[in-house]
Amino acid sequence: MPATERLDRYVADQLALSRTVAGRLIAQGLVLVNGAPARASRTLARGDRLEVTLPAAAATRTITPYPIPLSVRYEDDWMLVIDKPAGLVVHPAPGHWDDTLVNALVARGASLAAGDASRPGIVHRLDKDTSGLLIVAKTDAAHRALARGLAARRIQRSYAVLVWGHVDRPVVVDAPVARHPLDRKRMAVLAGGRPARSHVDRVARFAACDLVRVTLDTGRTHQVRVHLAHVGHPVVGDPVYGGGGHRRLSGRGRALGAALERIVPRQALHAALLRLRHPGSGQLLEVRSEWPADLSAGLAAASEDAALVDRSDALDYLGFFESRA
Q1: How far apart are CA 110 and CA 90, in angstroms?
Q2: Domain 71-151 maps to which CATH number in 1.10.10.10, 3.40.1000.10, 3.40.50.300, 3.30.2350.10?
Q3: Is the pLDDT of residue 58 over 60?
Q4: pTM confidence score
Q5: Which residue is catalytic, options 83, 116, 127, 201?
């Protein structure tokens, strides 16, 4: 357990709750540290023992159904895996109270774990403009098991990403992430931030950019985007952490990069692979999602291979799903 982690942050992270809900549990005396109540701001140390009592589920806040089709890649009585399209917000929040993935799940009639009333069933999140695989828990038992699996790094989450420049060797980015001190809508690598670790492996090398696989040990807000920018390879099409985009390149790569930016409609970031043990049976599950259609022209332009536009197996073809060493 990191010695700099606040109690409310740690509880929220381990149980996949919002900071508000975690703080409420602590204020109600339902979280004990070494057998005694503690303040939300308490700094935890290695060896501290936590006990959390979850109250009986209260009436869930009414969530307006939002009937849009969802791509379901896996489903049983415990959980489902959704292939989220870019542009869809995961759970209700200011500006998006009734047009989110959670609203769509309610419209679908899915049974969802109670958890946080504002995001029932949600185990982890993706940015609005990031596409790909997202785990949803149907029962409270599944939610707890999946949250523990994430915290213990037993769930592999790998992203396919186009990044500027060239990643010549595997990189492990071990850099804490926190809210930017001057811009609260951004995150940044900052001393004293929450521990964050990402593994970056090159899958294919192109003239202006690389296709890489990023596998997470942690799941901080904007982690993939912040970590890639931190090591000098920001995500192609990223409007926040792009670092100048194609202008950071020179020669032929710069011209190709400029053309690529005109084609890519959003950040070229896709949650493509999940590997996990089923929360009930313990069976190993692997769920894959191929490169999304809205980014296919960008991948073809980056690779200078027009045939990739029409390939439905572009990631498999390029070797993305091969095991990371």
Answers
A1: 15
A2: 3.30.2350.10
A3: no
A4: 0.82
A5: 127
